[in-house]
């Protein structure tokens, strides 16, 4: 069932009923960005921000975060039963569960007694039906991301969303009142869960006291690198939106905040559905896999404890990379790496990691410093640089193998544009990264330890070839 909608013209009524004060601000359509917040009159702030009567002020009890969901559960024992059965996995999932219930309540058709409506039930109806984040793109649109760093991230996100939704459904179906509300009339579907996830990601704020939270009305403010406003929490724990000091805005001018200065193009597109090239950092994150033929591959993954990643970023004229796993990936048993399964006192088994005979189980993210003072440190570095360069080359070949101008069906122009921008930015980083690594490889090849090591390896190889050749002669005779 598609979510019900309320016209934005009704927002001031909702705000009055729920004690939201708009001060000198109001919500209007913002060209190409959905809604936005504008100033009702011309304002200039001096060194200090304007006083709070000008501010957009939202009472604390409208702030939606994990504590608010817990409070709501205290008032509604049916919800508490549901939350205890499916929730407490992450703050985000608890908030989505709360929002799912509010979505179902807004289209309640059956006779279920479950669910206590809350101001968020109506507020959700002011929010966009669709957000342009890739998890809400069509299948054809998602094909535009092939060969970018978002390809695997978005596929994984889609699978995770389906898994989370199935989990909520399978458990809540067993609780009669929730079965009636959520599933009997088909009140909600995985599309609602996907939309709520997108709304959460694109509208969540990091509040100084309350942490990660959704805040109605303040979540209508758009992003800009040259932000003119900022949000805060006052002594009464209300959330306020104020102009920044030293800012002049004219009547009707949109005010903006910054969604973060250090986000990459991929992160902006993934979380907010747009790329602001002026305020993104040039960076990308790629998944990494151990060598297929490494007998220690599995142990390395278990010891490392999380999915290995490679971070690449432009830094001035160069490109730098970071990947703690690469340094672990590039050392082997003969270098002094060892894994042992130890039995603890209560019978459990534990994988321990050893480097040069010392327990390094808590150091698997720190192998770069562990290996650098080893006599073969430069060799390990050369191996790491080679692995990273190959990974970047594979990604570059993949990115260039897809043509975004190829006709792949019915795609929205905003999605096509965003995918093209992302690909262009990432191809640039990959090309420059490969060149920077080639330079580092050349320098490493000149290192005396590397020269000596490669020289001795060559001798060993030719000795081996000699032995093989003579044994072949023996065999032949
Ligand atoms: C926190 S909401 C802001 C309010 C939103 N415009 C609305 O209509 O509800 C974030 C969303 O606004 C849009 N947005 C914000 N800043 C933008 C910008 N600079 N360019 C394009 N879209 C923007 C994106 O769709 C983003 O996911």
From TrEMBL:
GO terms for cellular component: nucleus. InterPro entries: SET_dom, SET_dom_sf, SETD3_SETD6_MTase. GO terms for molecular function: protein-lysine N-methyltransferase activity. Residues 23-260 form the SET domain. Gene3D superfamilies: set domain protein methyltransferase, domain 1. This is SET domain-containing protein. CDD domains: SET_LSMT. It comes from Cercophora newfieldiana.
């Amino acid at each position: 069932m598609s979510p019900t909608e309320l016209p934005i013209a009704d927002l001031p009524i909702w705000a009055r009923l729920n004690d939201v004060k708009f001060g000198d601000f109001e919500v209007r359509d913002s060209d190409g960005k959905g809604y936005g917040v504008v100033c009702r009159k011309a304002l200039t702030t001096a060194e200090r921000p304007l006083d709070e009567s000008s501010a957009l002020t939202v009472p604390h009890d409208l702030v939606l975060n994990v504590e608010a969901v817990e409070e709501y559960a205290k008032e509604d024992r049916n919800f508490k039963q549901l939350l205890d059965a499916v929730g407490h996995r992450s703050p985000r999932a608890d908030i989505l569960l709360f929002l799912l219930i509010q979505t179902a309540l807004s289209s309640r058709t059956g006779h279920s007694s479950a669910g206590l409506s809350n101001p968020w039930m109506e507020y959700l109806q002011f929010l966009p039906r669709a957000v342009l984040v890739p998890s809400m793109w069509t299948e054809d649109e998602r094909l535009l991301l092939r060969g970018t760093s978002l390809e695997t991230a978005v596929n994984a996100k889609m699978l995770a969303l389906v898994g989370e939704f199935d989990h909520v459904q399978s458990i809540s179906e067993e609780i009669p009142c929730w079965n009636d509300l959520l599933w009997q009339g088909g009140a909600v579907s995985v599309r609602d869960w996907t939309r709520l996830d997108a709304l959460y990601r694109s509208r969540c704020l990091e509040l100084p006291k309350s942490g990660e939270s959704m805040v109605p009305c303040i979540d209508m403010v758009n992003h800009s690198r040259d932000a003119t406003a900022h949000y805060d929490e006052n002594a009464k724990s209300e959330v306020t939106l104020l102009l920044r000091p030293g800012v002049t805005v004219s009547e009707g001018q949109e005010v903006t905040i910054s969604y973060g200065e250090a986000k990459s193009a991929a992160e902006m597109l993934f979380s907010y559905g747009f790329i602001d090239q002026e305020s993104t950092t040039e960076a990308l994150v790629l998944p990494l896999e151990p060598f297929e033929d490494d007998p220690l591959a599995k142990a390395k993954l278990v010891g490392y404890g999380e999915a290995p990643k490679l971070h690449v970023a432009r830094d001035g004229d160069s490109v730098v990379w970071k990947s703690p796993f690469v340094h672990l990936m590039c050392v082997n048993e003969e270098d002094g790496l060892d894994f042992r399964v130890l039995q603890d006192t209560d019978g459990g088994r534990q994988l321990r990691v050893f480097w040069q005979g010392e327990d390094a189980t808590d150091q698997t993210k720190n192998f770069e410093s562990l290996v650098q003072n080893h006599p073969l440190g430069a060799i390990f570095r050369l191996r790491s640089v080679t692995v990273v360069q190959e990974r970047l080359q594979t990604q570059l070949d993949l990115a260039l193998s897809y043509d975004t101008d190829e006709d792949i069906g019915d795609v929205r122009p905003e999605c096509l544009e965003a995918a093209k921008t992302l690909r262009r930015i990432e191809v640039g980083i990959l090309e420059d990264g490969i060149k920077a690594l080639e330079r580092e490889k050349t320098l490493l090849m000149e290192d005396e330890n590397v020269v000596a090591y490669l020289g001795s390896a060559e001798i060993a190889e030719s000795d081996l070839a000699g032995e093989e050749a003579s044994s072949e002669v023996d065999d032949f005779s």
